[in-house]
Amino acid sequence: MIRPVDENGFSAEAWTRNAAAYEAIRTMPFNAELAAGTLGEARFRHYILQDAHYLIGFGRALALAAAKSPEPEGIVQFAKAAETAIVVERSLHGGFFRDYGISAETFAASPLSPPCDHYVSYLLATAYGEPYEVLVAALLPCFWIYAEIGTDILSRASAGNPYAAWIDTYAGEEFGTAVAEMIAATDAAARDVSPALRERMHRAFTRATQLEWMFWDGAYREAAWPV
């Protein structure tokens, strides 16, 4: 596990508060079958399409975090994170898009699923309407949970797993370093805030964690708009 440097800081407390939710994510059918290499292609295809949509919104929220950062170092960190979300992670998606024959036109024509739309809308509403401290707390679960899930799946993944590229990306050292930097930035933001603002940060972290579960669950169900 990627452990915060400050064991008494906001991030450590937030993770403890949401440990049950993380365990629900770790053991949910999507991730169990992904580790076993038995996840159906249709489900992963749905996931990868929605994740590509999500990363556009996530990148915008990161860019807004850069704009709101009170320190120059934060501007650089979040601007680079936005670039990574758009360029690096989308290159991962691009490989799967080619494998599945998903063209740029197909992607553009695919609507955001209800869970994806909810998550992106939540992050952008938080980015526009909440202070920097709350925004970084809302952004942290996506980083941290993906790194922990990637590492966990790597430890139990089947040989010749068809989703190895995905697993290797999120279990990799480079992504782990980015997560550690995000944890440190969030703890720095939480330092010396009022109890009321700290609690707003906790609510944002919890809601984003819940939306992580909803996103993977929606991919497993191939969720679509009912009407």
Describe the overall structure.
The chain is an all-alpha fold. The chain has one domain: Heme oxygenase-like (Heme Oxygenase, Chain A), CATH 1.20.910.10. Helices cover 80% and strands 0% of the residues. The chain has helices at residues 10-17, 19-27, 29-36, 41-68, 72-100, 104-109, 114-129, 132-156, 164-171, 173-190, 195-221. The longest helix is centred in the middle third of the chain and has 29 residues, at 72-100. The chain is globular, with a radius of gyration of 17 Å. The mean pLDDT is 95.
Q: What's the structural blueprint in terms of helices and strands?
A:
Elements (H helix, E strand, L loop, with lengths): L9 H8 L1 H9 L1 H8 L4 H28 L3 H29 L3 H6 L4 H16 L2 H25 L7 H8 L1 H18 L4 H27 L6
Number of domains: 1
Query: How large is the count of helical segments?
Result: 11
What's the pLDDT, averaged over the residues? Answer: 95
Number of E strands = 0
Q: What distance separates the N and C termini?
A: 41 Å
Low-pLDDT segments, ≥5 res: none
- Specify the structural class: mainly alpha
Estimate the helix proportion, in percent: over 70%
Report the radius of gyration as a whole number of Å: 17 Å
Which CATH architecture?
Up-down Bundle
